[in-house]
């Protein structure tokens, strides 16, 4: 995708003209022009020269963006300096206009005094008006250059309407001035009253004022992004050759060591080498609480180091930092077109020619009804200057830009305008379990010491033997002991007993760790503890039992725990009228336990990556469906969904496949994204309503439709003022989105849709499948089941894999018979022992 700056556009008709011109260039796959940012994105194989040539032939200018920018330089959002030159033009023009108004209205209409030379010399008064009006027109010549260039290229725009209206008033007034030279006395005074020099100048001044208000408001649409950039430091303290030095941010390279003292902003993305501190990441994730950082933790550009000293190594610099990627994505999203914008685009493409036609018809009709030419001309000019294609062109992009900015501040990143629009229409949302609803790694949930054994004694023995194992459950036990300050002791003669558990020697006594079946073969287990182990298993947890000598020490249960905000997130989605389902490859018992604990409506367990996308396709028949996930296996489903949502802590593949990224990795941001999308869409509807209704009411009023009925007419000067304010109103309404808090809970009136009937192990009609069951030793917990499943799914094209550590079996469903030897080799490589096919 290539981006270009486009110059000379003044309204939606201009952007439509540029899109049409570039779209016709050979090799251009798609083109999107943003009137808001005066930019264009082009996809395809066409050369930049061909694209620029097409834009210039259409009457505009174009240049590639950031052509000479270094990759090591962070993305900068330059604030266009549009307001200052407009203000200069406005104040100079206004000064001349006030003098002109004194002569034309103050003296002629209300008898304001003038030097004696003008008192009985109407021609002199008219000549002064001519000179002043001409000066105002020269100062505002850009309207005429742009407007008449559009006519020459057969692409009239808003400037065409303004320049035609002003030029018509000026030309008629010049004609009247010449008539005055041939008249005498009262006839001259009468002709002086028919001059429209003040209208010609007033139109230009009022439109310029409208442009100032519009430019000022448009500048505020990127304030959310620009505030992020202002937080990013311009320098970094790096350590090179053993010395500390402060260097410009552009000079930081990957691998450089940079130092962070309390109160300093992180200059680039990096990894902590030394030190501990709390880092405020609210500017990136929207999370107000600081995040604790220690060795191996990631730090991100523009976040704020709060308390301790950190020594870090740069991993991503310049335009590759997380902040730069967020800014680039949000800014590029503003250049894309939401589906609703196509309505305004179609209207804008024909709007100006139609208005010119209406103005001409208005002039002719009033002449045919017997009206004087000046009166008929005034009605035609009013039509030209009140019509506002700008309001139509800005109605959608300003809301999209502001909505994207609000989302970025809240930790919600919309990749394009369509995602921002469609997210709010979501009726069903499918959630992956591991890493999305749950934390993605097992954690200790319960500690149950045997009678006469303390919790500390159980934990010390457990972590002393488990720290020598590489199993994920062992890591959970070790982490729990560290959090509680338990110091492990030496464990000798450590052995991992495949399919059973662990053994070792602590303090001269043999210690065992493993499943209930394994420990039961070593020591007696009380009925109370056995029942508790079964209950933990029913809850989706994995019970680990520990014994020393011939005595049972107790039990520790671990599970992939649910995220703190998962239940709240599901509740908020339900309040919005969104049905929730969970799709996971884990076994049904664990999945149902997790789904029940957070209140999910429907659970699909034991599902392959390809099966996930099939379920998403089926759900789409019942309503607009979104998918939220974080893993490689979620990518097909994210692509298949109407809206794909990636958790920010997930894999790059999932993030690339998604339409929305939750940078804060909080599940409750799902509801916030939907609220923000709905509010943005509501704001767009308001803008489009105002833009359409303004023109629907204003054009007939200017044409004089209501004069015969109600006697209501419109002076061209008031028409110009109304035109100026229409765009300002649209942009100002869009800026109200900055006041919207997407995390504030709101009830929705939308009724929830019905979900498809629950069905397990369904196959498509006419599809034949084969099932192969293999005995496998070594699986001890659901995590082991997951490892076996992933190993088989990664290497073979199968429909489904179901593993059970209790039954010590793996069931493979496939379209064709699997090769046992190859499958067995993969299982063995994963660390488990295949024991043949079950006949």
Question: What is the mean pLDDT?
Answer: 81
State the helical fraction: 40-55%
Q: How would you describe the shape?
A: elongated
**Number of strand elements:** 30
* Strand content bin: 15-25%
Number of helices, where a helix is a run of at least 4 consecutive DSSP H or I residues: 32
Low-confidence stretches: 760-768
Sheet having the most strands: 7 strands, mixed
Q: Structural class, from secondary structure content?
A: alpha+beta
As laid out across the biggest beta sheet, the strand order is: 14-26-25-24-15-22-23
Estimated radius of gyration: 36 Å
Cα-to-Cα separation, first versus last residue: 56 Å
What do these coordinates show?
The chain is an alpha+beta fold and 839 residues long. It contains 32 helices and 30 strands. A seven-stranded mixed beta sheet has the order 14-26-25-24-15-22-23, with helices on both faces. The protein has a six-stranded antiparallel beta sheet with strand order 6-5-7-13-8-11, with no helix packed on it. β17 (492-497) and β18 (501-506) form a beta hairpin. It is elongated and about 130 Å long.
